[in-house]
Each structure stands twice: as C-alpha cells, then as structure tokens.
Amino acid sequence: MSSTPVVPRQTGWVMGRFGLGTIGRLLTLVLVAGGVAVLPATAVPAAEPCGESAQDASAARAMAKQCRRRVEVLTGRSETALVFANPSGTMTAEISLKAERVRAAGGQWVTADATLRRADDGTVRPVAAALPIVFSGGGTGPVARIGKGDKELVLDWTAALPAPVLDGPHATYPDVLPGVDLRLTADVEGFSEVLVVKTPAAAKHAALKRLTFKTRTKGLSLRTDAGTGAVSAVDGAGTVVFGGSTPTMWDSGVKAGTRRASTVNGGADPAEALPAKQRPMRTEITPGELAVVPDASLFTAADTVYPVYVDPTWPGGRNHWVMLWKQFGDTSYWDRTCVNCDTDESNSGVVRVGYQDFSGTTTARSVFEMDTSGLIGKQLKSATFSITQSWSGKSCGGTAGTAQLWQTSRISNGMTWNSAETGLQWLSKLSSNNQTRRFNGSGACAQGRVEWDAAGAVQAAINSGAPVTTVGLREAGESDPYAWRRYQLDPKLTVEYNSIPSAPDQFTVASTAQEPGLACVPGTVPVVRSTPVLRVRASDADDDSLLAVTFTRQKQWVSQTAATWVSVLPDVTVQNVPAGGTATLELPAPQTSGRYRVTAVVTDGNGAGATGPQSQLCEYIVDTDAPGTPAAVTSATYPEDGEFHGGRGVTGAFTVTPPTTNPGDVQKYVYALTPTTTPPVDGTRTLTANAVTHAVTIQATPSMGGLNTLRVWAVDAAGNLSAPGAPLQYQFKVDDPSMAAGQWHLDDPAGATTLTDSSGYERHGTIAGATTGAPGPMINGWTATGFSPGTPTFGATLPKPFSSTTSFSMATWAKLDGTGTAAIVGAGTRDRGLLNRSSFHLMYQGGSCGWAFRFTNTTGTLFQACAPVAAPANVWTHVAGVYDSGAQAITLYVDGIVRSTVAVTGTSDVAGDLNLGYTVGLFENVEKLSGQLSDLQVWDRKIFSDEVARLIGPPGGVPAAGWELDGDGTDIVGRSPLQQSAAVTYGPNRDGTPNAAAVYNGGSAYSVTSGPVLRTEQSYTVSAWVKLTNPGTSSRTVLSQGNTTGAAQPAFQLMFEVHCNGWTFGIHGSPAGGNRTDACAPAPPVLNTWTHLVAVHNASTHTMSLYIDGVLAVSQPAPATPFFANGPAVLGQATYGGVALDPFTGSIDEVALYPGALPAEAVVEL
C-alpha cells in the first residue's frame, strides 16, 4: 500500500497567512464641509451561507460578522498555523510548534500522520509528513533519506537490511547485527534511528564499539559540537537544517523512587519511569561517514538492564524547542520527540518541567520558539500559550505547585542546561498555572490543555520585529519535589490581533477635483490655487475594513525674524474609506496665499481601533495671483500681415513672449486655434515655458483656410490662468490647401523602369525589381505596380518631397497577396537599421496591429498607430498615414476612416528617398511587400479626414464610371458608356430640368455597359438618385452588375425589394447560385419622391451598408466570399440566367460607381 503523496513543506508563513488581503479599491471624491467627512458606505456583496471557512480574509470576515462566529481563512492555513476571522472584526491565529497538517499531492490539506506505509516502489514512507522522508524497504540502498527544499540527507547501513516490521511510526529491521535491531521512527518533521541492543552478548559485537553510517548530502554538510556531541546537517550559511541534539544511549531500568514519587498524597498511579542510566555519546564525522561512539561502560555494568538503546535523531521542523535537564547538563535535547522512547513516555509526555529529588536530584525546564513573523506590524489583542498536560508529581485533588511561563531570549541548536546558564535569559515572568492533570485522571484532573497568558512575549516580539516568540516553562521555586509536570509535545500560541493601518501614501495636492494632482513628497513643494484638493491612499491589510483618515494641517507665518508653523486649521477626518482607497479632502473655503503643510493618519474600526503611523509631510503653496497676459506672438510661417500664407494642414511655428511683469511666474502656456476659442481642460494644447527666457514656441496646424485666430494664455505653477476672458490674440490668414507634393498613379506601362510623377513636380521614381502593368483597383482604370520579394535591392524608390520633422501625409491603394508583414511606403537609411529601421512607414504589420503607420523618433523610440483587424488577401484597400508635428500625433486611416491616433514624442528625419515596397534593414531590405500598389500620393502637410474621404469619393476620388443621364448614356469618366434600349426616355431631374433624368417603364426599358465596371469581389460603392413611381407587386432594380458564368446571376443589386417593402442592397455570395443576402431598409420608400441611394460593400470587413438621403439606414455582414461578376452594369433591371427581371418603374439620375468602400464623410458628398 502506498502512502498519500504530499508536496514539500512551505518554509515559512507570511503576513498573508494571517488573513491579509490585497489592496485595490478606489475611493471617490468627498466634499468636506466641517471637521468630519463621511463617504458613502461601499456596497455590501450578497451574503454567503454560513460555513466553517471562506477562501480569503475578506470573505471570512464578512461571513464571521454575518454568522456571529469565527470563520477560518483558507488562504491563511499552513502546516503550523490556522487563521480565523472573528465576528468583532479582529483575526485569530493558532500557531502550533509542529506541523499538524500537510498538503497532499492534489493540493488538499490532510492531517499530518507519521504512520508508516509501504510505497509502490518498495520503500517505506509516512502517510502525510511535512518533509519527504523515505525509509528502506529492505535490501541494499539508503536506510533513510530526508529532504527540505533543495537540500537532502541520506544515511546508508553497512550491509543489506532485512524487510522491516511496521508498527505505527516505527520500522524495525530485526537482527541487523546479532541480537541487535535497528528501529527507525518517523515524525512528521524528521526521524530518529535507534539501535536496540537486546542482550549483553549482543553488546560485545565489535561494530558497537564505533557505529558507522555512510552519508550522502545535497546542499548540506555535517558537523558535530565538541562540547555536547550534537550532530547537525547545515547549509552553506551554517544554518542547521536537520539535527542539533546530543546522541544518547540508555538502558531499560527504572530509577528507584520514581514509583514513590507518583503515589504521594494517596495516589496509586503507574510509575513515572525515568531511565536508570543515560549517557551522551561522542560523534565523529569524516567525509562520507558519520560515526557514533557508545559508552562501553554502560554495556558492561552489572546493573545495566537490557535492552539498551542507542539513538541519534534528525529533526527538521521550522519551529523549535529544547529541554534543559540539569542532571544531564552537557546533553542537548534540541527538538527531541522522545527521551525514553517507550509507551510510558508516550502517555506521560516528553516535555518535562520542575524539580525532583528522588533517585538523584534533577531539575528540568522546557523552552519553545514559534514563528510569529506574520504578527509584525499588527495590533495585539491577546495571546495565550497552551499545551496538553499529561502527568504531575501531585495526585488529583492534591495541592498543586505552580508552573510559570516566561519570556526568554532566543534558543539555539545544541543548547544544554549548562550552556543555557549563561546563554539564555529569562526576561520576564508572564503568568502562572497550578492545575493538576494526568493521562489516567478524570474530570478536572483528566489529561487536557492548560493555558498561560503570553501577551507580553508576543508583544515584545512584535515591538522588536523578531520573527519568533520564545517562551519557557519552569516551576515556581524549583524546590518542591512534587511540583514537577509532564506535557505532550503539542504547544500552541493562540493570538487575537488586528491589522494596524499603514502610513498613508501617494499624497497628492491639486487645485481642483478634476485634476489628477501633483505628487507631494519630500523635496518638492507643489503650488496650487485657492481651493486645494488633498488626496492620500489609506491602506490596511484587513482589506474589507472601512477606515478613517485624519488630516492635520498647519500654515506658515512669516515675521520679520522667523517663519513658524501654526495649527490654525482644524483637523478633518474622512470616514468610510475602504482599505486601498483614496481619501479626498476638498476644502470649500478659499485658502489665502501662503505655505501650508499637512500630514495624515489612518484609523481602523476593529475593536478599539488602531491608528497607524503618520504619513510623510506634504508641503504645498497656495498662490491666488494670476500671471499677466503674454506680451506678443510672432510667426515666420504665418505673419500677422493680412496676406495669405502657408495653407490648410501646413504646420507653423508661433513664438510667444512672456508677460512684461513678473515673467518668471509663467510655467506653461495654453492655446486655442480656430475653430477652437477656449483654453483646454484636458491637458492638451499645453506647453512648458522655457526655464530661462520663459517664452515658448507653439507648433500649430491650421485646419481651416482664411482668417485664423491663435489665442494664448499664460499659466503659473498653481495653474492660475491669465485673464481667461482676454487672451492674447494673434490673427493671420491661411491659404487654400496645397495639392499633393507627389502623385504616382503607378500605372506605368509594363516593363517600365521609371515611376512617373503626375503632380507636376517631376519627382519620378526608380524601379528595382517591381513589375508595372498589373491590374489595378478599377476595371479599365489605372493599372498597378506589383511587388514580389526578390533580391536585396527589391522594390522602388521615389524622391521624398517633405521633411519628416514637419507635418506630412501619404495615401495609396494597396492589395496584399498574403497576410504577412508588408511595407508599403516609408523612409530610412541603412545606418538606422538598429533604430527600428525606417523613420516612418505605412505598412501591413499583421497580428494584433493589422494595418499600421509607424513613426520612429531620433532616439529610436517606435510609435505605431494600428488598425487591429486582419486584412484579407487580394482585396484592394485604401490606406493613409498622417503625421501632425503641431499636435505631435500620428493617425492611420483605412478605407477613409480613422482607425487610430497615437501621440508621439520627439522628431524623426532621415535624408534620402521614399522606399516603396520594403523597409530599410541593417544589411538588406526587409518586410518586403508581396502585392500591388496603385495611386500613391504624398503631401508636405497634414491632410484632414474630409480630404482622406474624398480620395476615394468625390471630388478627388475618380469613379470607375459615372452617368449624369442628361439625355444620353455618356460616361463622365469616358470608360463605360451606356447603351440605351429604345424604351428609355428622359424626363425632368430633381431640380426640374427637362430631359435630365432617364425614365424606365417597368418593362423593356434598360441601360447597359459593354462589359463589367466594378471588381465586385473587392470593396466598392454605388450611388444613384431615384424616383420610384409605381412598384406594383414586383421588386424594382435600380442598378446591377451581371455575370455570364455559373448561374449567371448578378453580383449585386441596388433595388426596391417587394418582400421587405424597402430600399435594398443585395449581394450574391457565389456565381454558382444560392440565395441573395439583402440589407433592407426598415422603412418603405416614399413614392414619386427623389431619393438618394448609396450602397457600400467593404470586402476588408465583410460588411454591406445602405444609405438613404445621406443617412445610414442599415448595415450588416456581407457574404464572406463575394465573386467577380464578368457581365455588364445594368440600369433598370437585373439579369438571372439570361432573363431580365425586376424592371424599374420611375426615374434614375446621376449614377456613380466607385472602387473602394466610401466612408460616411464621403457618402454625403455624392
């Protein structure tokens, strides 16, 4: 049968084991009107059913309060400690000397049990021990092994062992020598090995002259104490890990007189057995060997009673005890679990206290050291030391002597009576106990726990920060021969405590409740306005406790001779602050200018309440005087001369000079540029003044043409604003926005080696590995340039028409062959390879970033604006990147929509060209594009969202086809004219102009192109003005693009759908047939009324949207696999399998088809 596996013991318990929770709840603002501010009580979670335990301290405290009984905190449980929450709000820790429970392999706690069992591997192990202890199952190999953490001690016998006989914690190996048994005894924290010499003949065996054990260690070394013979296994720091007591030998005789001692006062109890003979043994250590040398005289004495026992022990617990025995003054009983190691001792107890004068005179004391490190910093309520008393020199009913509990100094391994005479201090008597209890008694005399008040010792340990509490038991006078007592080795400390709040921290002071506040720490003196707001974090390990925070304030009075602090301001207490929350003190009455200082303390509400230490001093200055208005503004880019300069999106530098009076008072400037007219309240548009000149240069980017006004205010250290209603105003005129500084349609003929710039600036590019003449985003439109990763010189280069230290923008159509990382356009030089490569780059990064605009400043810091949506392969997408040097921000647009704006710091400038299709690496080009690009434009200024939208829509975006239908089917683009059926007529348009709109009769009237117009597997937008006259009982199609393969059904229809009674945008997901996906407007159409319809298919996001009169009517998922319809575009009907269906009744005008998914901003321009 195998034993229950247990995990290695924990090496100690921390504060959390005493129920300390985490900190993290935030307190909201409190407005103080008087001396006490009360916060709203925090919401109480739903009550848990009453139980014996809860997972954490917070839950346990809530349950204890609700159920009016103590509740165990499971996270506080350890091998030697239990933690309970009390109904009063305090906590109780029960700390045992020895491990009482251990964790099994599955993580559950089980009762510590040293009973030995045979394991599956043939070894013998305790059922549940705190340390891994393994005994031999017989044969060769280690006789015993014990470990602790990464340390291990192994003992070997000199010959093969017989199979052991198991009895509880004992494993007896019979006749390991003739007439000699080896008995191993397991404890939950160690083990002992005893040789049982059964006869005088056996004692003559030569091996008993010097008992030898082979040893192996890991992370340990063996040492012996020359004075006591105590043998220990120590780590590299010299700390004892196992052992520490003197090996002893004793016989089986009973000292004369012990029976008399047990029957005084009329008692008739069993003998209080003391060994007749006990001897310490000398130990010798050599590499790989431990030898124990028995006292041969005990073997040969005529009065020796066999069997004789020979015993080295190996304890390894965290807590310790030592028995001091005057008769054996040089023998150490450090962490001994037995002395006689027999049944009588098991009954009467190994712990001895008191004096006796029969069969020799002796006195015993016992000292215990227990881990109380978790109580450091706590408020002690009470502490009790208890232990099970099992025997006494007095009989039941007799007059008992007094056992005293003392606070002592710390004990050490190897301590003996003699060494303790000078090495142990009995510091103060704590309490006394005179109870008489016996293992065979009854009633009040029955074996049971007895108690002493130990608060003095525990408090002393807390005060000194000692990790342990050390107490000793001794008899009052140590002269009454019947006042001795015996106890079981099960002492406990039971401690009730409360967590003392921590010193408040994270002190801040602000001018308003909306401001985050300035850190108030030694060495800094924040300056605020007349209504300071003080904030401080209140912490208490009892994380569900509601705390009170008291602020103590003083003001500095300055006389001609000195400055003194005066407490003229009353203390203010903020109540109901949750542990870990923020106490906020908002002073409503304006404070006069001057220097102030404040401290805070936290008090909890458990029991009598504990007040924690004082916070650090917070000093601040109240400044109520506003700075002067700035003196002037100048700008070379935008002079104030009444002429037009720069342009929309062109960043300009504006230098602000400080007020003429007290310029050093200015710390910052804030500004507003048309159309904004007010100072910021969110920290934007704020610049720090030069520390020497107190001036500042504002980089601002006009968003509007014409007359602009720059308004500037000065701000002092307190945040006071100069004349809020009368800022310095600087007026200048902004020119119209400039055209692109470079535009490459990338539609150069196949085989070209140059990319032509059509902007008029003649900035032609050079091709190195790219392929021109690839299909572009529009049928019959511009072609594209394709990129396929190849040589290190792969890609193309273009002259860079801007400086990346000032605002710039770029935009292009891009189609990826795959979804890997792919650079589109950027700038960098080879020597920047270690600084995030290019200084800026528009690219597809993939992963959690998707499309990206990257910006690297001159220190190598990378910023990137991301559109965290995967881009599907083979889909044309319009992407744009904008750098605004004035706002210090980069913005990424995808399909005309802002996807991300990210603040940047510093500047970035690289000499050289634009790189097309790759990133400059340290040794070669990297992040190479596999895909196509079309119509790349760059600007030496910021472009705005309305401009980006117009790059794909009107007026800047070029449609694939457009028909005004002013009496014929002419395509305004010139690519796809309409062929009109004879039944098409013309009537007035929405303005009433005659013959300016096509009229369809609901039958044979239609208009058709000669071939496809849109790449319907891509993103696209279609728009039309329509007037529906009489739908009847049929659906009516405005526009469709047909297909000649498969089921020959259209890719899309813009129509009135009779089944949903609304305008509808429908898409088929496969050329092979199947149902159409319809986005149907929820309201029916208004008949005989001109209506503007716009349908948008976004192949990147797989969405389809319908706008009616510029307002989004419906948006929903589109088919995941749209197809390219190779048939013509048709107005007035749709064709299914060669059959015309759903003919339109009414008028159609101004039809346009665009590649790409137009954003809402562009839709309103159609």
Automatic annotation (TrEMBL):
Family annotation (SMART domains): LamGL
Question: For the LamG-like jellyroll fold domain, which residue ranges apply?
Answer: 806-947, 1018-1161
Which InterPro entries would you find in this protein's record? ConA-like_dom_sf, LamG-like, PTX3
Keywords attached to this Swiss-Prot or TrEMBL record, sorted alphabetically, are: Disulfide bond, Signal
Check the record and name the SUPFAM superfamilies matching this protein.
Concanavalin A-like lectins/glucanases (SSF49899)
Among Pfam families, the record links this protein to: Laminin_G_3
The UniProt entry's GO biological process terms, in alphabetical order, are: immune response
Name the PANTHER family on file.
PENTRAXIN-RELATED PROTEIN PTX3
Under NCBIfam families, the record lists: DNRLRE_dom
Q: What is this protein called?
A: LamG-like jellyroll fold domain-containing protein
